[in-house]
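Q: What would this chain look like folded?
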Amino acid sequence: MPSFLAHDGTKLAYHVNGTGEPLVCLPGGPARASRYMGDLGGLPRRLILLDGRGSGDSAIPADPGTYRWDRLAEDVEALREHLGLARMDLLAHSASANVAVRYAGLHPARLRSLCLVAPSPVAVGFAPTEQDWQAGVELRRDEPWYSAALAAFRADEGVERHRFFYGPWTERAAAHAAGAEDECAEAAADGFYAPSPVTPEEVRAGLATLDAPVLLLTGDLDAHPCRLYARPFAGLFRDAGLVTMPGAGHFPWVDDPGAFVSAVSAFLDGLPGRGGLTRRA
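A: My prediction, written as C-alpha cells:
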C-alpha cells in the first residue's frame, strides 16, 4: 500500500486501481475510506484513491483541527507533489467536493481538469435545508418500499435507509450500501465541517481564477440536495459542464456503470492536449 507524508508529517495512504493516465480521486462521507469508490464502474484510468487523514489506512493526525474541509486541501497538494505531477485530473465525490473547490482556488494552475460527482455545495455557500432533504426523499414516494425505508432513514439505522441514495436497488447496490455501515471515521467526520474562517465568498473568488474545465455529474434520483444546487454550482466556474444521469442516485457509478464511464471518459478524453499529463522534471 503506497503512502506519503502530508505537510504536517501525517502519514497518508492511497490505493491504485487500474492503468493508464492518473486520476486523483477524493472520497466523500465525509471521512469514508476510499474503498467504496472501487474502480468507479470500470473507468479506464489509473485511479489514485486517497484515504483522508484518520480514515481507511491513513494515520490519525496529531492536530484534530486538520480534519476540517478547507485544511484537507493541502493534503491534496502534498499528494500531487508526491506523485510528481505538474498538473492533474482531480475527481471528488460528495463531501470531498468542498475540499476540491478549496484546492482549486488555492492551486488553480495545478489542475488540468476537475470532475465533481454528486458534489456537496456547502463550501461555495449553498446550504441545503430540511425541505431540500425532504424533497429528495419524496422522489421515491411511489416505490413500494418507501414507508419502510423512510422509517429507517428517520431512525438513521439499517441498510434500508440507504435506498434513497441509489437508483435501482440491485444486489450490487445493496452490497455497496452495506459497506457504508463501517467505513466512516467518526472523529474525522465530526471535524470535517467544524467552523472555518474560510468564507464562501473566498472560495468563490478562488474559483474565478480557475481555467481548467469542470464537469458536475449528478443523478436525478439522488435524495441528497446536491441535485438541487448543481446548476448554480456549475455557474461559478468559467468552463463547466453539467450531466444529470437518469435513474441514478448518489453513487452513479454503481447504478449505471456504463453511463457513468461514458460521461466521465467523454469529459476527460475531450480535454485539450490529451496526450498524457505533463510531469515535473
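The CA atoms of residues 18 and 46 lie 5 Å apart.
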